[in-house]
Amino acid sequence: MTTARTFYWMVIPALVLFLIFHTLPVLQGFYYSLTDYPGYGAYEFVGFRNYASLFQDDRILDAYLFTFQFAVVATVLTNAIALAIALGLNARIRFRTTLRGIFFIPNVLAILIVGYIFNYLFANSLPAIAEALGITALSTNILVNPDLAWLGIVLVATWQAVAFNIIIYLAGLQTIPGDVREAATVDGAGSWRQFRSIVFPLIAPFFTINMVLSLKTFLQVFDHIVALTNGGPGTATTSVSLLIYTGGLEGGEYAYQTANAVVYFLVIVAVSVFQLRVLQRREMSA
Amino acid sequence: MKRTALVLTAVLLLSACGSGEPADDRVKLEFFQFKPEAIETFDRIIERFEAAHPGIDVTQNHSPVAESAIRARLVKNDIPDVIALNGNGVFGELASAGVFYDFAAMPGAAGVSPPIQRILDDLGVYRRGERNGLPFSSNASGVIYNKDLFRRHGVEVPTTWSQLVAAAETFRGAGVDPFYVTLADAWTTLPTFNALAANLSPPDFFTRREAGRTTFAEAYPPVAARLGELFGYGQRDRFSRTYDDGNQAFAKGEAAMYLQGSFALPAISGFEPDFDIGTFALPAGEDPSATRLVSGVDVALTMAREPEHPEESLAFVEHLMSPEVMAAYAEEQQAVPPTVDAVSDDPALAGLMPYFERGRLTGYADHHIPLTVPLEQFLQQYVIDGDQAGLLRRLDSEWDKVAARRS
Amino acid sequence: MVHKGVNWWLTALLAACSLTVLVPLYFTVVTALKKPAELAGAGFDLPDDPQWGNFAEAWRLTDYPQAALNSALVTVGAVLLTLLTNSLVAYAIARNLERRLFRGLYFYFVSALFVPFPIIMLPVIKQTSALGLDNQLGLIFLYAVYGLAFNIFLYVGYIKSIPRSLEEAARTDGASTWTVFWKVIFPLLAPMNATVGILTFLWAWNDFLLPLVVLSSPSARTLPLVQYVFQNQFNTDYTTAFASYLMALAPALLVYVFAQRWVISGVLRGAIK
Questions:
Q1: How far apart, in whole angstroms, are the C-alpha atoms of residue C225 and residue A112?
Q2: What is the mean pLDDT of residues B189-209?
Q3: Is residue A1 within 8 Å of C76, Cβ to Cβ?
């Protein structure tokens, strides 16, 4: 009996803190989304007007389209590259520990600062290299080209995210029993089929978790964009998170953008649930 | 383990609860300002103030992202004692929200030129008749030029649009970039937009736009067309250069003209150009006598509506607003004091002074456009893709959406 | 031992791929050591005469010691508080998952993973400021509380694999549930503590948005926030800016270089559970 009570005491303080610092703000945020509050001063209750306006706002729609385009491409690229490198690291190679150590480095670096470094590379070094090589298409900064800027962000995001995903895939590959792994070693003939029919089904759960977490993280992209384009050129790379932040805190439409954030939350949950369903069904059938 | 937790808590509390400075019974004021290039100027002003007021300790806090920083402080209900902000749309919005002090009763602001005070008041006040900010310095938006390059290529200061285009062609023909353009910072399209809008669109445009009697598509094609034309004379890498790059490159003599406000002058001078700098008002049309110069309140001073230390904060504001301090600031920062009959004898500003003397001034058009309309991003995009109809359509649709959301 | 089966082609290919990681780092280092005049061109050449003064300039301009101390304080505080509290909560939940209340709590905490930060941003700004927590201490609390969502997920999975017999033996010796946790379970959690500690460390050290909105005083700024704030003041002084970036990245990089195997095995373990 006392044990049961102790267990309650173990969770209650954390529960209270969580209620205060997370759940209460969520409810407050939802409440503010029903008002015209700019974050300070007086405000009025306006019901679901903000939500009605959201669905007529093409800037919001544009931000969603950009965010999804970015997130899907970055998720696919990150997982494809990470899986390939993890397979390589798991094969019979030399310097495995060193290489593994190098590939993980981007994960210990702050995205914002990495973004600033790449920003300079895109603006100055890549054009200089492209010009020297005579590639005119790349001789200007891709971050200021409305059609290409998003690729710059994909590149930096993938560069950073691959590091962590490699480790998850390596973990998955290590769960494969030794004799199976022996048979599935990627070098030699028919390795693609070995991978498809033996290795991949065994690491499918890791694939699922990586895909879900990558997509969820990329859908909330913020730091990369602040450092690389700040949403530009024009509004070409304005992600939903950036729009909520700039429109809400800098544009003075806090309540309106919070309504956007609530819708965004529902979208993320829906996408994650959908993804889990589809990928888990594949795991079963694989 | 518990001991670790205790020690940790103690360390955290200690570090959070003050850095152990000696007791100091001086009143502490926080002075929040937005101009990184004026930090040292303000430091000197503060030093003089503290010498005269031994009971007050002023700390300068500057933020390069001042507008979002000040909003965050308002959200926290933690408003700095004395605030210096650019007199723009954000200032007007905050003033209208009733978070700034009412200076209507303050006699110290008597020296300020009434039209300039009106420009600031027109941005927004909490209640009619209130005065929620004081102009501390004025700026002007026009064209900054390299006198050496003009002389070397035999180009006169243009006073009409066709002369301006002809000058640009002359420079281009001689292999000199006519303008240094810095489109990586979207806002650098605004000084030019404002000069063109002030001279090429109907003066009552915004009143009529609010009433739904006109549109950008109807009234702004000349503004957009000339904006696109001028920026087309920029240097090759104009899309990826920032404002800072521009100040440096212009100071190095890399272009003949620079489409910026007077507020860029201190930064350019900081790079020690080895030529003389001049300025002229952007001639948007063909009649030189019709050209008006865009001028606004560069630095506006204000305080919290309910100040924590009203007397001390007011004393500091009065110190800042004294004619000597305003003049000294204007001299160091190459600005124009907002006082009646004030002129600047800075040679770089000489080209703009006639407009001040004859009162041929006009305000910033972009201050009338709601902040949630991403004007500068739209202008940046337009200058890159050249889609004029698209720009005007987007401006109209954003304007209507914002109006509908706020009705 | 002869590496008969070593695939040298693959080794070379992976080494080439690793250049994508190393080249930007190399670029950062050489740029931080150049004179502004040497910046023209692609910029991958070595500096003629390394300008160590760039670091001194960045150190002075950004008040590096203060920012580094803030980052260190927040990170260490967040890691310790997270380890001490999150493991405890996870233990109580993991041992009572058959009860509806605790199972509900589990899903309640984990579901927070999907709430985007912007929803709670403004209320959190108001709250932390009203409570006087708009400082390093507030950040430590927030990391420990927001970390619960993912850490509970990691810990509960791990604790389920620890046989209950160990605790029951201790309990028959008269130990209380608290003692059982601190003396028996917590030490057994060491591998998972390492994982959670590493992930919390990387999060708190590299985070940008939470410090941006929570911290009020300029003297409380963390390293990434300082880079953001000074981005304008670096002006076109890219060499100083890069020196500053490098100094901001260096502590985490150094820790990683020395604890590399340990860090990676920690993350690996987290993935396998």
A1: 9
A2: 92
A3: no
Q: CB B406 to CB A36 under 8 A?
A: yes
Mean pLDDT of chain C: 88
DSSP string for A143-199: GG-TTTHHHHHHHHHHHHHHHHHHHHHHHHHHTS-HHHHHHH-SSSTTHHHHIIIII
**Hey, what are B16's tokens?**
């959070």
Sign for the CA dihedral angle at B299, B304, B305, B306 comes to negative
* φ, ψ at B126 (rounded to 5°): -70, -55
Token duo for residue A184: 């599935």
Calpha distance B353→B341 (Å, rounded): 11
- pLDDT-based confidence at A80, cuts 50/70/90? very high
Write the residue in B64, B75, B245 that is nearest to C236 by C-beta. Answer: B245
**Which has the closest alpha carbon to A108: C27, C144, C250?**
C250
Give the lowest-confidence range in A128-132, A134-138, A231-235, B90-94.
A134-138
**Contact between chains at A250 and B67 (C-beta distance less than 8 A):** yes
Q: Give CA torsion, residues C90, C96, C99, C104, to 10 deg.
A: 0
Q: Which residues contact A189 (CB under 8 A, 6 or more apart)?
A: none
Residues B199, B200, B201, B202, Cα dihedral to 10°: 70
Is the four-CA dihedral C222, C227, C231, C237 of positive or negative sign?
positive
Residue B160 DSSP label: S
Q: Which chains have 3 or more CB–CB distances shorter than 8 Å to chain A?
A: B, C
Write the single-letter amino acid at A162.
V
Q: DSSP string spanning B88-139?
A: SHHHHHHHHTT-B---TT-GGGGGB-HHHHHHHHHH--SSTT----EEEEEE
Tell me the pLDDT band of A180, cut-offs 50, 70 and 90.
low
Q: What is the distance in angstroms between the Cα of C267 and the nearest Cα belonging to chain B?
A: 24
* C-beta separation of A167 from C271 below 8 A: yes
- CB of B387 within 8 Å of a chain A CB? The answer is no
SS3 B65: coil
Question: What is the DSSP code string of C170-183?
Answer: HHHTT--HHHIIII
How much is the pTM?
0.87
User: Is residue B63 classed as helix, strand or coil in its secondary structure?
Assistant: coil
Cα dist from A204 to A180, A270, A282, C273, whole Å: 15, 21, 8, 15
For residue B106, count CB atoms less than 10 angstroms from its CB and return exposed for 0-12, middle for 13-18, buried for 19 or more. Answer: middle
pLDDT tens digit sequence for B119-176: 888 888 898 889 999 999 999 999 999 999 999 999 999 999 999 999 999 999 999 9
Lowest-confidence region among A103-117, A259-273, B95-109: B95-109
The angle subtended at Cα B190 by Cα B184 and Cα B195, nearest 5°, is: 140
Please tell me if residue A273 touches chain C, with a CB cutoff of 8 Å.
no
Residue type, A99: L
% helix, strand, coil for chain B, step of 5: 50, 15, 35
Nearest to C89 among A11, A21, A100 (CB): A11
Do residue C233 and residue B36 have CB atoms under 8 angstroms apart?
yes
* Mean pLDDT (chain A, rounded): 87
In this structure, are residues B178 and B233 in contact, taking their beta carbons and an 8 Å threshold?
yes
CA distances from B29 to B58, B73, B303, C91, C129 (A): 5, 15, 11, 49, 19
**Rounded CA gap, A286 and A281, in Å?**
8
Q: E strands within chain A?
A: none
A284 touches chain C (CB under 8 A): no
Helix, strand, coil shares, percent, chain C, to 5: 75, 0, 25
The contacts of residue B234 (CB under 8 Å, 6+ apart) are: B177, B178, B179, B180, B181, B183
Task: Give the tens place of pLDDT for each residue, B251-305.
Answer: 999 999 999 999 999 989 988 999 999 999 999 999 999 999 999 899 999 999 8
